[in-house]
Write a structure and sequence with these properties.
The protein has helices at residues 17-68, 110-120; strands at residues 74-81, 84-90, 95-101, 104-109. It has 121 residues and is α+β, with helices and mostly antiparallel strands.
Length: 121
Amino acid sequence: MGEPAEDEDADFSDIPAGVLDGKIAQYEGFIDDVLKRQLQSSLDDFRRDAEVLEQCRELRRNVDLLVSGDVQELETMIDLGCQFFAKASVPDTSRLFVDIGLGFKLDMTLAEACDLLEHKE
């Protein structure tokens, strides 16, 4: 039990330098070609999912503010892109449209939106 394993005392001096260099290059190629690409893909997926999660949380906070403040109508500024804003007036805040993906938007009450966002988070 307390004896060192045979692999721990491995001696690579009997392996020709060309073979050893070839194996090292093969492993480096695998790291660069496969593992780094998979890591980048996973990081991109994580960032995209984190952004969606943050959008859900922000929408849920806004819906909670509408409900807790008993807001009936709302004036706001809408970002049109490239830092261009337009003033918007919402006469009835009891319902809203939630983008559920693939170009579909659902018309729902604030309570339904909270339930959907809780489930999505």
